[in-house]
Amino acid sequence: MAFYMVCLGIFFDFFDGFFARLFKVSSPLGLQLDSLADMVTSGVAPGYVMYTLFLKSAHPHDVIASSFIPFIGFIVTLGSCYRLANFNIDTRQTDSFIGLPTPANSLFIMSLPLVIQFSDSLMIFEMLTNHWVLLGITLCSAYILNAEIPLFSLKVKKFNIKDNALQIVFLVISLILALLLHFTAVPLIIIFYVLLSIVNNIFLKK
């Protein structure tokens, strides 16, 4: 249910900006309110999910691990907070992104409990219930949110295949993954998005 509510929040997040631009009613106050709303769906929610995963990965008789270690999950919330604040003052991110957008990161984190629940793979279950793996995911999440890595945007400005080839390839492969793997596809799609952006950056430099 939390996953679906976050998806709904991201949906509204996209369309409030879309309609604000359409009706030319955007304002500095709206920008700040947008980021505050994002902090819930893309900061607090994934941070709490990581907290819960850490809590469930701890041994029930390990008091220290179950009392303190789960709070490491809220590093995701701190990374999201910094990302959102920095995004508001970064003029470079009008047509593309630098670092992973918080909605994409939130979908990645929020999908992990669903992958655990619906995947039949014992290896995936053991990985996502291992506190060292969860620590790696948490730190990578906070890093990639604020990394100086240009990532392409899905915004369509010109309605032709040539200018949107990268977006079309991404959407087609994402759709195939979603049809084949269901919830397990969500984190794979986010990883694919980052890797595709990096490959695209390499070709642009050449």
Write the layout of secondary structure elements.
Elements lengths: L1 H21 L5 H30 L5 H5 L7 H15 L7 E2 L3 H17 L3 H7 L2 H16 L3 E2 L13 H17 L3 H21 L1
Antiparallel strand pairs: 1-2
Protein name: CDP-alcohol phosphatidyltransferase family protein
Pfam families: CDP-OH_P_transf (PF01066)
Keywords: Membrane, Transferase, Transmembrane, Transmembrane helix
How would you describe what is shown here?
Belongs to the CDP-alcohol phosphatidyltransferase class-I family. It holds the Pfam family CDP-OH_P_transf. The chain crosses the membrane at residues 63-85, 97-119, 131-152, 164-181. Keywords: Membrane, Transferase, Transmembrane, Transmembrane helix. This is CDP-alcohol phosphatidyltransferase family protein. The chain is mostly helical and 206 residues long. Helices cover 72% and strands 2% of the residues. It has helices at residues 2-22, 28-57, 63-67, 75-89, 102-118, 122-128, 131-146, 165-181, 185-205; strands at residues 97-98, 150-151. It has a two-stranded antiparallel ribbon. α2 packs parallel to α5 (102-118). The chain is globular, with a radius of gyration of 18 Å. The chain starts with a helix and ends with a helix. The mean pLDDT is 88.
